[in-house]
Amino acid sequence: MEIPAPAAQLDVDLGIYLLTLGQDLDESPDWVWRHLVDPEAVAAWSPCVPDAPITVTGPVTLREHPGDEPVAATVLELVDGQVLTHTWGADTVTWTVERFGPFSSVTVRQATTSRDSALDCAAGWHLCLEVLARRAAGEDAPRVVGPDALAAGWAELRADYERRFAGIE
């Protein structure tokens, strides 16, 4: 099944790079929300998996794999079913879920201080959102993070985003 690439944009203001990627999904907003806050569902597609369900603002432990060193994180905003904003190390990540009839759209915005980090994240989130879209379409798509991302074309995607965002310094 052909999954359209996420819509992508990179902006910079006062040394902060804001990467935005949006993906339409063949699932309900409730399904998407569960895949943002429930550790088991998140672990099927995302590189930042919480140790417990995200239900309140405050500190949260994120890991790529069980047993990995945790990444410092804090849930800054939580509007049930609609908006999740959290830190991920020094970056801030905002997830927005919108309904379109029986389907939905998810948008991730990551604020970072490095253009290179924004390009890395563009390629990484691209792969993750593709997995999420495949799962929403009913496929049993495997999670693509770490070395699996390299094998899935992460470097080529990063180079493509570098070309797309060449004028943004």
Features:
169 residues; alpha+beta; 8 strands; 30% helix; 36% strand
Structure description:
The chain has 169 residues and is of the alpha+beta class. It is built from 5 helices and 8 strands, in the order E-E-H-H-E-E-E-E-E-E-H-H-H. It has helices at 29-37, 39-42, 115-136, 147-151, 154-164; strands at residues 7-13, 16-25, 49-50, 58-63, 71-79, 83-88, 91-100, 103-112. The chain has an 8-stranded antiparallel beta sheet. Strand 5 and strand 6 (83-88) form a beta hairpin. Helix 3 crosses helix 5. The protein starts with 6 loop residues before the first strand and ends in a 5-residue tail after the last helix.
Summarize the structure.
With 169 residues, the chain is α+β, with helices and mostly antiparallel strands.
